[in-house]
């Protein structure tokens, strides 16, 4: 049976990989295969992407070009400015380890009104996986960059990877980001993806307790937007609201979420697949923007991409068997592939258990405990 879930006609954002280098960091959980190499995106790739993005951005002022998939600041200011210049009307954002942030970078970001996301995993003792290329702890160099951002009054969000979702650490974890002054916090439980095959199995019970404790901490001091909790609240609002009009993962089309690698190759749905190859599916790309327009690749993605039909089969299997499907909508493609020995039609993954099911159950538990 072919899945009723289809890709949306256009994305809400595009992820751009200006360089593969993650200088100066070498995080032990990183999924990127070429992070120690310095493959740079040529301006011809950015120009080709902009040809499709600019009309999309004209229709959608919130359309975002996300510079990610390496350390974008390692590209250098002059080169990154050149890559950004063909885009007209789109918002730009960078996801950075902040180690290279200095006054000149702050001026660059302010001048171009770039949204900034920082990768940091909480207090210093929770950052043991974030090390430099020399093997030294990376927390203090990241914090120096964050202090520069704060000194220049540049707002920033954060993404944290939690390798051990321990409930006893949840409040201290949340308080760190609240004191840091982040606008939004995204929490990713460490995943088995790409070259990171060492992610630990997390106890689902402890993971559920972690999300419940995190919700408690947030409710006690709701000064930042917590991405995962907001997703649960949005889902609850959609379920309790008009079921005929409220979009849920089972009714809304999938955002194709194209990732454009440094060489122009385009991977749909899962940025984590970029740079990898498979005996059955090749390099996972739908095509290359130097040969076909990004708008064409998005429009024809399901016909052009060899692995997507198998992925839809996995989504259908989840829909038929998983009670949490209405919230989750099906596991991410990369998690299926890397956790199910190179197949996209498997069902439950470690990511599902700790980052979706445990999240839903933990936040629900928090709501029930505060119902009276």
TrEMBL record:
Keywords, in A-Z order: Iron, Iron-sulfur, Metal-binding, S-adenosyl-L-methionine
SUPFAM superfamilies per UniProt: Radical SAM enzymes
Domain Radical SAM core: 8-220
InterPro entries hit by this protein: Aldolase_TIM (IPR013785), rSAM (IPR007197), rSAM_sf (IPR058240), Sulphatase_maturase_rSAM (IPR023867)
GO molecular function terms noted in the UniProt entry: iron-sulfur cluster binding; metal ion binding; oxidoreductase activity
PROSITE patterns named among the record's database cross-references: RADICAL_SAM
Iron-sulfur is among the record's keywords: yes
Name of this protein: Radical SAM protein
Species: Streptomyces virginiae (Streptomyces cinnamonensis)
